[in-house]
């Protein structure tokens, strides 16, 4: 659509709103009944103005609607030309354990002590109310997230609200990458510090109180109210509490790139569930959220091979980690997942609290850290670099299962061939248990001698059901006439 036609269309829709407001006797141009009409107007304004960042069009439209009986293209042009964009650093104070040194996430985002504001000798251009709060923040050893963004003058609060969505994702990364986690006892979790009135009526919250512009620390105000900080939000500095490398890598791959990647979105959703588990003070709900996170990332409702959930999750995890997991480690993964699902069943189906169950803390920590390893593998492993969704990850898993079942088939046929050579003929009967044992012994021997057998998922722990599946497939394909197993 040409520029002039686009302007005419915007003006026509705004003038229609002016007429409708007058005809209905509405008090506001942004009455609930009119809001849907602004959707196409805002889209058209974005197309026309091509702003560097998201614009608070509502606040920009209010004065021209209030001061003009008819909107003309010239009025819209002047409004757009008067938009003033500049760089502003927004400061989000963090509750929780202070980071021991600056963590740089990108060229416009870093985490540092709030005392760095004073060290940089910024001029304090704060209203008295915020100056008092700033001094109070300085008296505590806390960190803050600093985000530099292009923002529209007079609407910095609007920009900070947009930035807050990204900041919340960073906080989730900080929380899940803590080196010390406990089921239902993570009071020093990271979170944005907000303030509320002391009485029962909440006037709102502002988690980004401060901004820096032209080396001046200023108030980023929208709501004015008094409040006080929860002392539990502050804690003594503990060096090394955060896996900073993991936070940085996850930020770069999941948030900074801003790609429309279904896999990244799925992982961010699971990270949100993981964080929800970590910060929930109710131990039962915290454990349940962890199991939900496992399901959300690693389970398929319509698994191609109809694997039981516990088997499916453990095999999927072993495939994704792909770090030479030993047979014992593979068994432990299945054991802890099974234990986790047993505890979930007690909680969900029988209504029994699990917080006093023996070993529940160990299971929680094992599964929590296991899921973190899976997330990092999905982000960093080159096998998944070009994988756009978890559905594509499951396709890779299906291919690996097919390959490993071929290995089992090869082993079965090799054992049967050896037996036929010993007896000069094929036996009419096959004892399944003997076959199972001989196949496993053959695989053990083959693993040491050649690379024909290289299990990644089953890892010598394939079940009797897997062996049955392959054997039945061989029987069907080869039309072997066996009377009994």
For the report, how would you describe the main beta sheet?
A: 8 strands, mixed
Helix amount: 40-55%
How many helical elements? 16
Shape by Cα distribution: elongated
What are the low-pLDDT stretches, counting only 5+ consecutive residues below 50? 196-204, 222-239, 480-485
Can you give the mean pLDDT? 79
Our Rg estimate from Cα atoms comes to 31 Å
Distance between the termini: 74 Å
- Helix and strand content put the structural class at alpha+beta
Number of strands: 8
Order of helices and strands: HHHHEEEHEHEHEEEHHHHHHHHH
* Proportion of residues in β-strands: 5-15%
The oligomerization state is single chain
Question: Could you explain the architecture of this structure?
Answer:
- By secondary structure, the chain is an alpha+beta fold.
- Helices cover 54% and strands 8% of the residues.
- It has 16 helices and eight strands.
- The chain has helices at residues 3-24, 38-49, 57-67, 73-81, 116-119, 128-138, 156-176, 244-256, 262-279, 283-298, 309-321, 327-348, 360-380, 390-423, 432-449, 464-478, and strands spanning 85-95, 103-104, 109-113, 123-125, 143-152, 191-192, 210-213, 216-219.
- Strands 1, 2, 3, 4, 5, 6, 7 and 8 form an eight-stranded mixed beta sheet that branches.
- A hairpin with a 4-residue loop joins strand 2 (103-104) and strand 3 (109-113).
């Amino acid at each position: 659509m040409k520029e002039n036609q686009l302007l005419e269309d915007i003006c026509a829709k705004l003038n229609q709103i002016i007429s409708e407001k007058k005809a209905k006797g509405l008090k506001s141009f942004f009455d609930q009944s009119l809001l849907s009409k602004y959707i196409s107007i805002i889209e058209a304004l974005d197309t026309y103005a091509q702003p560097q960042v998201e614009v608070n069009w509502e606040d920009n439209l209010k004065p021209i609607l209030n001061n003009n009986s008819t909107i003309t293209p010239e009025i819209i042009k002047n409004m757009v030309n008067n938009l003033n964009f500049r760089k502003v650093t927004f400061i989000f104070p963090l509750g929780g354990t202070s980071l021991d040194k600056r963590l740089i996430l990108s060229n416009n985002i870093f985490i540092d002590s709030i005392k760095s504001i004073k060290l940089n000798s910024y001029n304090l251009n704060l209203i008295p109310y915020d100056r008092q709060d700033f001094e109070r923040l300085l008296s505590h050893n806390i960190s803050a997230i600093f985000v530099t963004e292009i923002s529209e003058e007079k609407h910095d609060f609007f920009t900070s609200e947009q930035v807050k969505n990204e900041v919340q994702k960073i906080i989730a990364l900080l929380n899940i990458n803590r080196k010390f986690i406990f089921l239902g006892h993570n009071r020093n979790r990271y979170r944005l510090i907000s303030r509320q009135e002391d009485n029962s009526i909440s006037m709102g919250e502002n988690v980004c109180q401060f901004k820096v512009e032209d080396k001046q620390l200023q108030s980023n105000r929208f709501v004015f109210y008094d409040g006080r900080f929860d002392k539990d939000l502050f804690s003594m500095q503990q060096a090394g509490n955060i896996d900073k490398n993991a936070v940085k890598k996850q930020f770069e791959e999941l948030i900074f790139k801003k790609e429309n990647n279904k896999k990244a979105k799925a992982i961010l959703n699971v990270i949100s569930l993981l964080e929800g588990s970590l910060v929930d003070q109710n131990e039962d709900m915290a454990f349940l959220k962890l199991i939900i996170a496992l399901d959300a990332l690693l389970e398929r409702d319509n698994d191609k091979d109809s694997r039981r959930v516990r088997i499916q999750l453990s095999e999927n995890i072993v495939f994704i980690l792909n770090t030479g997991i030993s047979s014992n480690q593979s068994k432990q993964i299945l054991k802890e997942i099974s234990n986790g699902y047993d505890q979930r069943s007690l909680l969900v189906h029988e209504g029994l609290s699990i917080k006093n169950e023996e070993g529940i803390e160990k299971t929680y920590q094992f599964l929590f850290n296991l899921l973190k390893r899976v997330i990092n593998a999905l982000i960093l492993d080159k096998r998944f670099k070009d994988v756009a969704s978890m559905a594509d990850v499951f396709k890779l898993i299906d291919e690996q299962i097919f390959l490993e079942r071929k290995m089992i088939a090869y082993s079965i046929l090799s054992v049967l061939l050896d037996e036929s050579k010993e007896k000069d003929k094929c036996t009419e009967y096959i004892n399944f248990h003997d076959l199972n044992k001989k196949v496993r012994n053959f695989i053990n021997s083959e693993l040491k001698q050649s690379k024909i057998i290289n299990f990644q998922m089953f890892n010598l722990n394939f079940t009797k059901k897997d062996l049955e599946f392959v054997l039945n497939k061989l029987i069907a394909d080869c039309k072997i006439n066996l009377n009994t197993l």
